[in-house]
Amino acid sequence: MTEPPTGPLPDAPADPRTGPASRDAAKTAVDHAGDVHHRGLYALLAVLLAALLFGGWGVWKTFAPGVDDPQGLVREQQATIDALEQRVATLARSDQISREANNDLQGTLAERDEEIAGLRADVAFYERFVGATGQRRGLAVHELKLQPQTDQAWHFVATLTQNLNRGAVSSGRLTLSVEGTVGGRLKRLSWSELRQQHDVPGAEYSFKYFQQVEGDIVLPPGFQPVRVHVRLAPARGPAVEQSFAWGEAVASAPQSAPDA
To answer: What architecture is the 140-249 domain classified under in CATH?
Structure first.
């Protein structure tokens, strides 16, 4: 038999699959596979994004008026404008009603204050002439008020009082005369001239403690009044005459006092 040769074995030939060229090829293949995977992922994301955008656009087209429906958009805006105008009109009317109610309330409060002031004046008046501590006085004109009716016509209210004879009735007639100027000259108008009637009787009065006597007088054109004289002619006893400055007698509505 032939013996195998002895000594070192020769080197085995290199495997081309395990060499440097093979490793580079494998790396290239792996990189290529990674790129393909990423490109596929990007494409999938792009498809999903496009689907979302398309779906959102479809929803907006379905529930919102688009440019292809301008009349619908105009109708919606007009409806909004009409609703706002109606609300503004309602608020304006409500504000007007509130202002009118406030003005009415202020007027009512002013009237009540005036009534209270009148009642207080009446109470003071009663206390002076009916109270036990009131000063005793005979027949007199406590107050005279004049109110204009027209340029020449005037309404007078004379308050007559007496508490000297308590319980006794004072009766008689009241007349007025007015001093003034006309054409630069002094003149005194009598009761008949003021009443524009001849021999007209005076205003009648009859009371125990006080009474308001009213009537009307007429001044001639161009007459400038200065003073007014009140004459009381009682049924018994001497006449009583008192004078008042015209400007002081002209005042607002007289305070009413009941006959007593």
So the answer is: Sandwich (2.60)
